[in-house]
Amino acid sequence: MAIFTDPIRDYQGFAPGDAEWLHLLVGDWQMVADLAFADLALWFPLDDGGYVALAHARPSTSHTVFHSDFVGERIRADLLPLVNRAWESQRIESTPDEQCVETAMRVEAVPMVRNGRTLAIVTTHMDMSTPRMPSRLELTYRQCAQDLLRMGTLGLWPDFATPTGSRRGAPRVGDGLIRLDVDGIVEYASPNGVSAFRRLGDVETLEGRSLAEITTPLLKDRRMVDETLPLVVTGRMPWRSEISSRGVSLSLRAIPLRDEADRFGALVLVRDVSELRRREMELVSKDATIREIHHRVKNNLQTVAALLRMQSRRMVSEEGKQGLEQAMRRVSTIALVHETLSQGLAQSVDFDELIARQFRLSAEVASPSHAVRTERSGCFGELPSDFATPLALVINELVTNAVEHGLADRSGTVWLEANRRTDRDGEELLDVTIADDGVGLPAEDFPQGLGLQIVRTLVNSELGGTIEWSAREGGGTAVHLEMGLHNDRCA
């Protein structure tokens, strides 16, 4: 299905809601194409007296009569008189029987009328090249299509009360169709519709029985019943509902049938969504399991950090004690990422929230004897866990290094700045700068301790970025990181 909407946007004669009504029609008319066993085309008038095709739908229940897309093209000359008659009369117009025999195609022009004004024309194109006796299913389907199109000429369909949001498992014509009379008695049920209800329970037959009375005994747990179900199974409201029993879930959608006087029946589309719901439950269970794993990893890492802290207190060597404390800080940084992941469903981290705590903590732990201010600016945004963990470790090491070596046992300030930008090739980049107002870079190359070796390894291998040290304007040192945020890694 395709749609060509520019003429609608440019048309000045529409009242409020008219354009939305046509969009609602195109969003739901695949059902009519399937019921009518016909191609549908939506035509809109032009200033010169012609029409342009706004949309085209092909049936999934039959073969198409138009193999090429003609959306955006002008109407053919042989269709123009039929469409003009429908526009003026505001009634459904059909090609004469002799023309149907000659062209092996039946064409109907259906005016879509709202508030007494024709807004567009829907043409139905049904192939008649293979003459045969239609089955009861075909006759019922076509009658349902005629009823819906007739409602379109009265402005009664599509209905703005119909749910428009995407809902997983929404039923289609081929999944199962039940036609009800005004009292909710089943007049016809397609084989797929009957099969769907039989999966729910011991249902002998549907026709001639009230769908509401059939459904009620199948409800084992009344506390879990969808409150919209009674109005859907009686066909009174154009809503969707769901019924579950014995491990089977059916999605139901009602389309009330109306005329000028009142409602005279309804269509109920049925779909067995048991497998979809089972998979959704598996995903929910999987998400809960992943969160629990993150929670347990966090607890285990915190236990490791506590053991390192206890061991460091027993160390006599000052160098050994510092090494264990640094290992403890690194483990705690990783634990913080897993703690954040254990609190949500997504496998991504609000890095700004995470690093705000970690940034202050890293500076405070590294400077127990003197005051160090921390200032943060910019925005990291959402980052996936496999990106957030190494980045948090890198920032922790650089902040610790800035406090211990840059400020050199004196008070000062450490800055953290983050900026996301897009380069000329359209790739999103993340720039991170950690700076201090300390003693600055040494005159000679500074020694590469374990912390800086960890930083270089993580930046190059895990983050796929670059790192540079430079003198900060105004004194001190600035470390600049640049890394790409690939679409398959970043949210």
UniProtKB/TrEMBL annotation:
| Coiled-coil annotated residue ranges, if any | none
Name the top EC class: transferase
Q: Does the keyword Glycoprotein apply?
A: no
User: What's a single GO MF annotation on this record?
Assistant: protein histidine kinase activity
What this protein catalyses is: ATP + protein L-histidine = ADP + protein N-phospho-L-histidine
Query: InterPro entries this protein is in?
Result: H_kinase_PdtaS_GAF_sf, HATPase_C_sf, HATPase_dom, His_kinase_dom, PAS-like_dom_sf, PAS_4, PdtaS_GAF, Sig_transdc_His_kin_sub2_dim/P
Q: Which SUPFAM superfamilies does this UniProt record tie to the protein? A: ATPase domain of HSP90 chaperone/DNA topoisomerase II/histidine kinase (SSF55874), PYP-like sensor domain (PAS domain) (SSF55785)
Keyword entries, A-Z: ATP-binding, Kinase, Nucleotide-binding, Phosphoprotein, Transferase
Q: Is the keyword Nucleotide-binding assigned to this protein?
A: yes
- EC number(s) per entry: 2.7.13.3
Name of this protein: histidine kinase
